[in-house]
Amino acid sequence: MDERAIVNAMVALLATGGSTNHLIHWVAVAHSAGIVIDWNDFSDLSEVVPTLAHVYPNGSADVNQFQAAGGTGFIIRELLDAGFMHEDVLTVREGGIREFTHEPALAGPSLAWTDAGDSKDETIVRPAASPFSPTGGLKLLQGNLGRSVIKVSAVPDDRHVIEAPARVLIRKRLCTWPLMPASWRAT
């Protein structure tokens, strides 16, 4: 496990629409390998990695429809060919990550590996040359209330910027639990 493998995982996550749940998992996996990544790294990559898949909740397709449309083999090939993934990483397959662009199929009594081919449904998976979005599925939000990550690939384009009046109500002394850190206490 090295930095290139972690970057590949991050890129694949972003290209498939991004899961905010997977962010914490990849941060933990990287940490276990002695590699430090955080939400800033996902946000930076999201600026350049295109969204190539519309699978629930950022689309109506389920994972079975995703696989039938081209699946991971198609996505990995598109990301490799477009230069978004590192090809020179160790994998469980002898030929490396490029072998994951092929799918197993029965050819009579034998197993044969065939190229993932073109997208069979461009409402579900698209080539890197014509993505759903030129950017990945996640954005880092930061402000005086804290930090969070939002899955923008599931938000319609016309809702990416919302301007509206707001009222902010602040209650004083919400909690006085003595073991709570002072920074958590409302004033």
Short descriptors:
two-stranded antiparallel ribbon, alpha+beta, 187 residues
Molecular structure report:
By secondary structure, the protein is an alpha+beta fold. It has one domain (3-162). Helix content is 28%, strand content 13%. The chain is built from five helices and four strands, in the order αααααββββ. It has helices spanning 3-15, 20-32, 39-46, 63-69, 71-81, and strands at 102-107, 110-115, 138-143, 146-151. It has a two-stranded antiparallel ribbon with strand order 1-2. Helix 1 runs antiparallel to helix 2. The N and C termini lie far apart (46 Å).
Strand content: 5-15%
Q: Oligomeric state of the chains? A: single chain
Distance between the termini: 46 Å
Helical element count?
5
Strand order of the largest sheet: 1-2
Give helix and strand order, one letter per element, not per position: HHHHHEEEE
Whole-number tally of structural domains: 1
Secondary structure tally: strands = 4
Describe the main β-sheet briefly: 2 strands, antiparallel
Please bin the fraction of helical residues. 25-40%
The gyration radius over C-alpha positions equals 20 Å
Low-confidence parts:
none
On the 0-100 scale, what is the average pLDDT? 87
Shape: globular
Structural class: alpha+beta
